[in-house]
UniProtKB/TrEMBL annotation:
Gene Ontology molecular function: any one: riboflavin reductase (NADPH) activity
NAD(P)-binding domain ranges (all copies): 15-233
PANTHER family: FLAVIN REDUCTASE (NADPH) (PTHR43355)
Protein name, entry field: NAD(P)-binding domain-containing protein
Native source organism of the sequence: Hyphodiscus hymeniophilus
Gene3D superfamilies, per the entry: NAD(P)-binding Rossmann-like Domain (3.40.50.720)
Lineage per the UniProt record: Eukaryota, Fungi, Dikarya, Ascomycota, Pezizomycotina
Protein family per UniProt: Belongs to the avfA family.
Domain of life assignment: Eukaryota
Amino acid sequence: MSLPTSISPTLALFGATGGCCRAVLHRSLQAGLSVNVLARTPSKLTTEFPSTEYPQLTIIGGNIRDAKAVERTLTFTEGTSTKLVEIIVSGVGMRSFGESERTVCEDGMNCILSSITETRAEGAEGDDPKIVVISTKGCSTERREVPVLMIPVYAVFVRIPIIDKRKMETAVRKSGLKWCILRPSHLTDGESKGLAKVRIGVEKSQKGGKSETQSEEIGYSIRREDVGLWIYQELVCGGGTEEWEGKIVGLTY
Ligand SMILES: NC(=O)c1ccc[n+]([C@@H]2O[C@H](COP(=O)([O-])OP(=O)(O)OC[C@H]3O[C@@H](n4cnc5c(N)ncnc54)[C@H](OP(=O)(O)O)[C@@H]3O)[C@@H](O)[C@H]2O)c1
């Protein structure tokens, strides 16, 4: 697999009003990266990230099902040309159990993928972007990814998001792009504990939708700040490392 992106990659973020991607946004802006963010309610971000302080941040108001808004989020203007971003990170997820929310990850990913094709057709330049998505523990159909005590909790409360996230994962795996799927444990708030506290399980994707477990770490929770820190450090900073491409990475304490 080829090395990705530049040392200062351009970024498109979806779901940055949620804790994990907000942490990615914060760290990326501190590092001076150029970031496009799609947000249904931009005011949720403008107080913390004012344009006076972060001129390299562009917030596009819109829904992840709105192709035009997604296309704007995926592109930058450089001189007279339009360029695709180098890295896409999505932490979009259900906010309620409403009917349309149940397919937000699948619909959102399909919209991102078709928007990449559309922007290319309209002449956007640059390499294909790398896609990073936040899925969840419990998506594996082959292994138990959660502590035994948590199995009933996942079966009842995470059943519907898991159906949606599995479909999103399939779309990402079939995209033909470089990708990394993250499956964190139950997410909690609070300050970062640091990457030394984060345990990592790795599944490598194989042909036919199967995967091979390389290492497994089962735990109860992880803080959103540390998911964001891990994404920034391993997949964004300096373009990210090749090590995680084509892999499903479980994150837990
Ligand atoms: N809760 C857990 O314990 C748990 C465990 C593992 C994985 N996860 C997953 O991890 C990811 C990150 O979680 P998080 O807690 O950081 O974020 P979150 O609180 O789940 O926030 C979800 C994000 O998605 C956005 N969103 C939802 N529907 C959208 C739409 N139609 N168009 C555009 N944006 C939309 C929300 O925007 P608005 O602000 O506009 O609503 C928000 O930014 C999510 O996918 C979540 O499902 C959660």
